[in-house]
Every structure is written in structure tokens, then in C-alpha cells.
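C-alpha cells incoming
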């Protein structure tokens, strides 16, 4: 039987309204009900009213009053070209209504109760049954437990006293007595203080005398049904017999006794219930966002709160609101003014209602679950500016739920008027004339015009606009345009320029749509025919178009890199040719490649892990990659037979053949950093990656760099403790199996050399190493010396008080400038012989840590090294508030640190003096924390890492590599980009992705 697809259903307990597309049924259509399991039918009186594009069918509740118990499906009989046709009635889509099958509230019929509902196939009907059965199926059930601490009787009642009160007086409460298949519902009342419920003895006459009846308490709260299982707690003087459950047995003389069982199960308190609540008329008008809630859905006397929850975050924003009550509904009004000029983070905020029942908190997602919104325009209810350049846009999600979108005007238009732009053709002449052909489809409207292509500098307002050379109309919603751009004539700035189509929509709305590529052949020719698509300028700069990770068309303007010559590209393809001939040689003995920062150093976790592998597993083919002539090349002299020089043919061949890349930095540091074109980059991206880390996580937030399932994500993420593992799982999104607790490789060689060194030099040392600040990266030198960072540290280095403390105690302070701030190192000065300013490479950080007696830092992970060696640490956090706002930490820096903190120079110098006077002894309060922050304090961290990599190399991770291969496939990317907007493809892709993620 065909289905008459409805666009919305409203039910207020007395009137049913069905929303249909205008003309879906004729004026002579006949609506009736048919019982699911029998041939019974019931005629309906109805009225059809047309308004705009819709027909509204209204049926009042008197049509349902005399229905027999059962499930009655709504059907319609209408005229057809030949004869009549009969159709069921229901929603055409299913996803948004899968969890909402009933249209509350429940209403009373002549001999029963009824409620509108949806079947599993989204057919609409009326369910008629006892009130108890409807409540059990229609209301949201929550199972709770209570102890009965005493039972008292009066002349007419039995009073059950409860250990923990049932908060919040309810609209209805009752007790269900059950014996076998027989159930008897007996009304009860809960006392105002919630500590007692009462049953009238006269009601117990319904119970048969010689049966055992189990008893449960049911409390109705709006659309929530609390189901209480009851247990005995020392009701000693009343028990005469014991049965399973809470039983009541009547005695012939009319008296009774209560039988209980002991229950030792863990009881729950403050149980939160999460669910959904239907609302209607979500609107933005005047200064309010409003929606309607049926009065039958919750008790207005409850404590109600409304809040927004930022999606995928923990941020919560409680809302001010005003309630206007009408006959059948309450209108909730949320004033816009509470958002104006407030620091509301951009993103998607979901709307919830919180109902406090005292001991129980009910939290529900709000949505228009009983309607269908076929177009994107219908889902957005408006927008209002709330800050400079930012708008607040209430909208209805694809699951029919209420949300707010806080975004720029441009991103709002992108959401409201989705457009699909596809790169159709791309050519470039030797003279630098780039010809771009793109198609645009805007399914929400037929009235749009393409003004041209805009080239925008990423992260900047700089842009160039190019008019249309040729336009072709494909269909009502799709156009194709061609534009020519002379790249050699444009005053480019570094680095990245993105292509957009500029379009004009209804009402003079202008928006820009990113040009994306779903053409496999265009992607391939830009990646491998780089000589044709690259302009080499006379000043050493280069310009070339490329496809971004997200599929967008962009342009790069930058200095030509060290490894982007014709010779380097020839080496890449030569290595690839050799690999194609010899690949079978690498199948049985896997190759591991190890590198550090930009493949220039050999002093961090990667080096020490390589050293362990070389010395303990010499038969394994494990190689270390380093640039020829680097400062640390000498560190690798004992292992020269397993050293590979960066970007040599051997290195490129091993990159193609390798099974695992191991590094303390990003995987990309093992290849030319900026090079995104050519065949090698694809292979690098698809390799298994073990991330050894540069330091311990905790003091500094860095999860945006190494989040799971991104370009830098690792197959194995090395951590030092369960504490750190929790950070990686919560903030980086890593599954349990991808995080290994082993400790860091470089800790294997850590030892306390402070006593030996101070004896030899007759001088104790303090190691002072602050970290960098993200807001000061790459600023001009003149701006850096004006910063509070430079002022704080340079003034401290020249403090007379500090110099005096160091001189009097013959202690040297080594101030080590972070590598990221090397351009500014010459600005730091000190004329005192006890203060030495050092830069990256002067001495190894490990050596400085081992020989020092005390470490001073701010938020650097070097603190963990010192703590591992059981030496004291001081934290100098003069800019804590600014640091937390701009960088952030995973730890509470005011409570969780393992060293004392100085917030100003005076406090810090005083702490330094105290430690000198106490011979640099670590305080006991911090010693106790070591077991909390480290799982292991030994010298076998590298061994644990090696074993974990070997153990994980099984069939499970081979499947994972297949997934990585598909994920990095140009063909898969192109097909996905082209077809993902189609529902069936999107759902299938999501299912495949979910399957691989669960491996």
C-alpha cells in the first residue's frame, strides 16, 4: 500500500492536525482508522483547510472516544485515475523520528485511554489501551530503587516509609501488584516531604487472598515515568515470611503481613535522565527566540532551566527566559539581548531543557520531532547580529532538533544556501595564463547569478576579483563559468591563496563559495605534472595551483624550497622506478625509519630509541634519517651503517619501502617539509606512524596538532603514565588501543650527575628554561622586545637581588632560550659571570638537566624530565592568566603542579634562595606525586616501546593500513567529494568509516 507523506503532525490532547502538501488529497478524500490485527474500521469526521502551500487536516478527539483497545492505523481513500486508491498515512523519512514514537500527552477515551503514535515504518495511528500500558510504552521510563525502612498501618491505610525521599510531588502515583500474568493497579499518594507513600486498605480487596503479589511504585512526572523497585532495609518486626521481590499476602481474617527480601545491589542517587521533548513554532521575531511546549508534557511547577551546550565541547550557557501560558501550551521566550556583546564562542550550540525533580535531574533535547523540513531554508528561522561580524542563527538540525549557530555572516550564508561547486577544467600556458572552468549548483534557489572568481589570501583581507569570460546554463539550478587569470601580473603576498566563486542570491545577498575539485585527473596532473603548472619567478619565488587536503583549489606563492629543483624531482621518480622493480625485496623484512625535528637533530626520543634498537636488535632493518652536515651528525658516527642522508635516493627508496615511521615530531619531518606534490608525499601520508613525543603532555595544550584521524595522527601514541593517557584519549580523541604507556626513550639514559659535576667544577647549577608563547611567534624584533615576556625574563636576568644570591652561594644559572625564539636570543643580556645565556645547540638539554640541581621553567615539558630525576622544580608563571587564555593547559596549574610557583620576581628569587639554603632538596609533598604522574621510573622505556610496536604488528593493524590506503587514495577522495552530498552515499561512507574506526 502506498503512503500519503505528511509534512507535520500536531497533537495537544484534544485536537489532531496533519500537515500535507497542497493538493496531496482531493476534497472528496475520506480519512478512516483500521485496527492493525483485525478488519475493524472507524470512520472519522475531519476538516481540510488550505493555507499557502499546505493543506491542514483537523480531527477532534471525539472521533477516538469509542475505539476498542488496539492499534488503529490512519488511512485515506481518495480518487485515482481509475477508481479509488487507498493509502496509509505517515512520514516519508525515518531518521529524525526513530527515538520518538508517541505524540504525547495521553488522553482519556470512554472505556480506556489513547495516544497518537508512529509504527517502526513511520505509519501514523492511534494506540488505545489502559493508562498503565500506555504510560509504560509512551512515557520515558527510568528505573530507580528505594529502601523501605518501616511500614505503619492505620485504620484505613498502609503507610510505606522510604529511606531516601522521592522529591517533587507528582501529577499521579500508583502501585502495581503483579502475580503471574495478572496486574492490578492501585492508586497511591506520595507525601509532601517525599518520605512516605500511602495505600488505602479498601483498594486491596481486588487482590486474591492466596496469591503472592510483587509490588512496584510508579510515579508520573510530565512525560517521565519513574519506576521504583522496593527493597527491605531492616523492617525487622514486621517480616513473617520471605518471598522473591517485595510481596504482600492477604490473610483470611482481613489482616495482612508484609514480606520483603534483602537487597545488596548498589543503589543510585541523583540519577539524570536524558531524552527528547517535542516543541513547536521555533521562531525568531522582534527581540525573542520562541517555541511552544504543550502543557501536558511537563509540570510547570517544576524548577525549569534552559541551556545551550556547545557541540563536541563542555561549554554550557544557561539562558534567561520568559514563559507565557495559553490554554493548551506554554510559549518560551528567550531574549536576544543576553547574547549581545557577549563572548559566545563560534560554533554550534544545542538547546536543552533541564527539569529538577529534587533528587532527580531530567535533561531533554528540544526539537520539532513531529514535522518534516525538506529544504535547508525551512530549517533556518532567522539570524541576528550579536557582535562585530558575528551572527546568531537559530535553526533546526537534520534530526529536527533546535540549535543555535554562532558564526560569521559568510559562514551563516554558507549554511543557509548550500552550494556545490565543482572544478570542471584547469589549464595553464607557459606565459602564466591560468584558465579555470567551474560549475555551480544551488539547490535551494533558481535565482542566482555568478559574478566571477575571487582569489583570497588565506587569513587576510587581501583579494583579487576576475570577471567571467564565458557562462553556460546547464539547468535551472546549475551554471558553468570560465575565467582567465594572468598569474605573472598579480602583486602576490605569501603564502596561500584560495579560489572562490562570487554569487548573488535572492534579495541582493552576496556570498562566496569555495571552488573544490572532484575530478581525479585534475588532481593527478597538478600533483605529478608540476613543471607545467609551476611559474618560477626571477626573484626566487614560485607560483603553482594545487588541491588542498579538503579538496579545495588553491594557489601557493612562496620562495622555492631547497628540495624543489629538477634534480630533486628526478631523484624522486628514479627512486620510485627502482622501488617498482625491487619492492618484493622489502616484503619479508620490514623497514623502520626514524627521524627528529626536520631530520636535522639526533638528541631526542627518536635518537635514543634508535640507539636501543641498533644495540639490541641489530638484525632489524631500522634506519635513522638526518641531513648531511647537521650539527648532530657526529652523534650517529657509531651507527653509520644504519644512517640515511635526508632526500638522498636511498632515503626516498626507503620511504617508499618502509613499513613504519617513528618520530618525536610530526611524520612530515621525515620528508621535504613544504613539498606537497609528487609521488613520495602520498606514500609518506599512508605509512604507519609511531609518535614518541617531544615531551610529556599536561602543562601546554597542543591537541590541535596531533588530533586522531588527522594528517599527523599516529597509529601508536607513546605516553608516560595513565594520567597522560587520559589526556590523549579525552582531548586528542585517540582510542584505547592506539595509546601505549611506556615512558619516554630519552629517559633511559637520564642519571643524576649534579654531585659529580659540582664536585669537579666547585659550582652548583640552576637550569632556567622557559617555553615559547604562541602569540609572539614570528613577530618583528622590535615588537618582541616590547613584550611582557621579554621584559619579565630580561629584567630577572639583570636583577641585582638574583645576582647577589648567585654570587654569595657560588651558583651558576644557565638561561636557555627556546628554539622557537632563537631569532631573538641576542636581545637577552647579562654581564654577571654566574649567569650564562645559551641558545639551542650550545649544549644538549639532557646534559644540562642531569648536571643541574634545580630547574626553573614556566610551562615547559622539560619540567617532567627534572621531576623524573627526583630533583626540585620552580615554576615562574608571571603571565598565567594570559597563557591560559591563549594557549591553555590540561592541568589545573594552581593545584596540580609538582613544584612551587613564583608569580613575580621577588617571590621567585626568594624560592631560589630557600632551595639553595636547603641544599636543593625536593620537598616531600612533591615526592609523593611521582607515582601519580609516572607509571615507570626505570631505564627500559625503549624496550617497552619496541615490544609494543612488534605486538601491534598483526592482522588488525594490517586492516587499519588498508583503511589508511583508501583514505589517502586520490580516486576515493575525488569520488567522495563528487557524490557525498547524496544521502545514500553519505550514509554508506559514514558506515564504512565507522567500521574501520572500530578496528
Amino acid at each position: 500500500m502506498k503512503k500519503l507523506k505528511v509534512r507535520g503532525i500536531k497533537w495537544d490532547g484534544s485536537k489532531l492536525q496533519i500537515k500535507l502538501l497542497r493538493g496531496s488529497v482531493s476534497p472528496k478524500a475520506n480519512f478512516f482508522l483500521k485496527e492493525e490485527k483485525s478488519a475493524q474500521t472507524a470512520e472519522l469526521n475531519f476538516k481540510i483547510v488550505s493555507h499557502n502551500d499546505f493543506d491542514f487536516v483537523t480531527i477532534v478527539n471525539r472521533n477516538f472516544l469509542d475505539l476498542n483497545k488496539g492499534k488503529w492505523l490512519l488511512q485515506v481513500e481518495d480518487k485515482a485515475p481509475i477508481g479509488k486508491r487507498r493509502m496509509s498515512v505517515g512520514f516519508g523519512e525515518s531518521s529524525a523520528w526513530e527515538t520518538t514514537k508517541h505524540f504525547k500527552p495521553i488522553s482519556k477515551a470512554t472505556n480506556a485511554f489513547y495516544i497518537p503514535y508512529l509504527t517502526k515504518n513511520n505509519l501514523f495511528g492511534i494506540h488505545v489501551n489502559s493508562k498503565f500500558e500506555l504510560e509504560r510504552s509512551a512515557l520515558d521510563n527510568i528505573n530507580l530503587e528505594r529502601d523501605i525502612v518501616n511500614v505503619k498501618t492505620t485504620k484505613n491505610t498502609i503507610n510505606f516509609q522510604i529511606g531516601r525521599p522521592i522529591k517533587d510531588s507528582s501529577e499521579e502515583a500508583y502501585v502495581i501488584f503483579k502475580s503471574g500474568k495478572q496486574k492490578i493497579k492501585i492508586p497511591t499518594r506520595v507525601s509532601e516531604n517525599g518520605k512516605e507513600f500511602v495505600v488505602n486498605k479498601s483498594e486491596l480487596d481486588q487482590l486474591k487472598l492466596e496469591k503472592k503479589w510483587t509490588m512496584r511504585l510508579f510515579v508520573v512526572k510530565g512525560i517521565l515515568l519513574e519506576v521504583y523497585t522496593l527493597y527491605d532495609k531492616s523492617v525487622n518486626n514486621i517480616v513473617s515470611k520471605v518471598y522473591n521481590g517485595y510481596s504482600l499476602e492477604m490473610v483470611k481474617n482481613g489482616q495482612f503481613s508484609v514480606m520483603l527480601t534483602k537487597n545488596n545491589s548498589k543503589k543510585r542517587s541523583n540519577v539524570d535522565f536524558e531524552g527528547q521533548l517535542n516543541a513547536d513554532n521555533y521562531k525568531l521575531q522582534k527581540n525573542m527566540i520562541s517555541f511552544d511546549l504543550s502543557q501536558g508534557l511537563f509540570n510547570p511547577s517544576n524548577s525549569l532551566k534552559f541551556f545551550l551546550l556547545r557541540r563536541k565541547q563542555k561549554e554550557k550557557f544557561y539562558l534567561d527566559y520568559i514563559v507565557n501560558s495559553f490554554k493548551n501550551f506554554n510559549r518560551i521566550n528567550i531574549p536576544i539581548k543576553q547574547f549581545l556583546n557577549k563572548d559566545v564562542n563560534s560554533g554550534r550550540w544545542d538547546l536543552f531543557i533541564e527539569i529538577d525533580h529534587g533528587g532527580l535531574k531530567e535533561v531533554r533535547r528540544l526539537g520539532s520531532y513531529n514535522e518534516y523540513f525538506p529544504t535547508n531554508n525551512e530549517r533556518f528561522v532567522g539570524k541576528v547580529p550579536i557582535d562585530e561580524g558575528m551572527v546568531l542563527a537559530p535553526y533546526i538540525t537534520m534530526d529536527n532538533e533546535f540549535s543555535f549557530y554562532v558564526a560569521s555572516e559568510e559562514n551563516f550564508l554558507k549554511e543557509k544556501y548550500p552550494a556545490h561547486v565543482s572544478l570542471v577544467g584547469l589549464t595553464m600556458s607557459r606565459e602564466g595564463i591560468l584558465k579555470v572552468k567551474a560549475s555551480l549548483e544551488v539547490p535551494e534557489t533558481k535565482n542566482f547569478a555568478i559574478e566571477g572568481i575571487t582569489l583570497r589570501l588565506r587569513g587576510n583581507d587581501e583579494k583579487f576579483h576576475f570577471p567571467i569570460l564565458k557562462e553556460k546554463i546547464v539547468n535551472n539550478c546549475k551554471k558553468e563559468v570560465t575565467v582567465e587569470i594572468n598569474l605573472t601580473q598579480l602583486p602576490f603576498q605569501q603564502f596561500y591563496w584560495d579560489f572562490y566563486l562570487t554569487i548573488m542570491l535572492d534579495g541582493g545577498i552576496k556570498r562566496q563559495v569555495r571552488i573544490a575539485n572532484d575530478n581525479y585527473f585534475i588532481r593527478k596532473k597538478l600533483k605529478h605534472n608540476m613543471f607545467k603548472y609551476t611559474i618560477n619567478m626571477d626573484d626566487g619565488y614560485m607560483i603553482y595551483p594545487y588541491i588542498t587536503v579538503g579538496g579545495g583549489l588553491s594557489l601557493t606563492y612562496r620562495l622555492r624550497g631547497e628540495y624543489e629543483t629538477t634534480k630533486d624531482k628526478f631523484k624522486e621518480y628514479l627512486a620510485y622506478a627502482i622501488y617498482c622493480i625491487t619492492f618484493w625485496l622489502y616484503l619479508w623484512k620490514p623497514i623502520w625509519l626514524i627521524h627528529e625535528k626536520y631530520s636535522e637533530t639526533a638528541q631526542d626520543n627518536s635518537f635514543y630509541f634508535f640507539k636501543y634498537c641498533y644495540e639490541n636488535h641489530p638484525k632489524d632493518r631500522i634506519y635513522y634519517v638526518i641531513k648531511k652536515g647537521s650539527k648532530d651528525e657526529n652523534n650517529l658516527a657509531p651507527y653509520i651503517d644504519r644512517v640515511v642522508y635526508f632526500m638522498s635516493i636511498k632515503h626516498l627508496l626507503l620511504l617508499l619501502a618502509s613499513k613504519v615511521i617513528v618520530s618525536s615530531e610530526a611524520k612530515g619531518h621525515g620528508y621535504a617539509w613544504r613539498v606537497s606534490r609528487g609521488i613520495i608525499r602520498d606514500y609518506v601520508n599512508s605509512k604507519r606512524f609511531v609518535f614518541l613525543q617531544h615531551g610529556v603532555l599536561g602543562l601546554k595544550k597542543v591537541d590541535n596538532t596531533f588530533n586522531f584521524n588527522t594528517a599527523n595522527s599516529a597509529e601508536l601514541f607513546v605516553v608516560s603514565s595513565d594520567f597522560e593517557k587520559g589526556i590523549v584519549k579525552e582531548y586528542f580523541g585517540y582510542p584505547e588501543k592506539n595509546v601505549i604507556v611506556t615512558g619516554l626513550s630519552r629517559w633511559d639514559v637520564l642519571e643524576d650527575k649534579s654531585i659529580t659535576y659540582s664536585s669537579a667544577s666547585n659550582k652548583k647549577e640552576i637550569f632556567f628554561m622557559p617555553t615559547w608563547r604562541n602569540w609572539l611567534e614570528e613577530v618583528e624584533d622590535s615588537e618582541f622586545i616590547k613584550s611582557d615576556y621579554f621584559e619579565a625574563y630580561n629584567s630577572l636576568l639583570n636583577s641585582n637581588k638574583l645576582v647577589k644570591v648567585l654570587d654569595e652561594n657560588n651558583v651558576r644559572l644557565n638561561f636557555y632560550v627556546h628554539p622557537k625564539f632563537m631569532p631573538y636570543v641576542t636581545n637577552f643580556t647579562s654581564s654577571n659571570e654566574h649567569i650564562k645565556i645559551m641558545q639551542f645547540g650550545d649544549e644538549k638539554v639532557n646534559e644540562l638537566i642531569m648536571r643541574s640541581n634545580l630547574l626553573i621553567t614556566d610551562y615547559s615539558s622539560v619540567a617532567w624530565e627534572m621531576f623524573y630525576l627526583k630533583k626540585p622544580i620552580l615554576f615562574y608563571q608571571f603571565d598565567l592568566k594570559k597563557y591560559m587564555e591563549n594557549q591553555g593547559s590540561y592541568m589545573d596549574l594552581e593545584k596540580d603542579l609538582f613544584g612551587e610557583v613564583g608569580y613575580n620576581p621577588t617571590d621567585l628569587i626568594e624560592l631560589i634562595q630557600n632551595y639553595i639554603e636547603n641544599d636543593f632538596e625536593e620537598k616531600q609533598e612533591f615526592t609523593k606525586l611521582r607515582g601519580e604522574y609516572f607509571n615507570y621510573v626505570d631505564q627500559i622505556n625503549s624496550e617497552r616501546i619496541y615490544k609494543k610496536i612488534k605486538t601491534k604488528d598483526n592482522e588488525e593493524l594490517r586492516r587499519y593500513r588498508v583503511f589508511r590506503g583508501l583514505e589517502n587514495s586520490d580516486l576515493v577522495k575525488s569520488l567522495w567529494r563528487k557524490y557525498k552530498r547524496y544521502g545514500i552515499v553519505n550514509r554508506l561512507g559514514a558506515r564504512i568509516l565507522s567500521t574501520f574506526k572500530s578496528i
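note: The CA atoms of residues 308 and 698 lie 29 Å apart.
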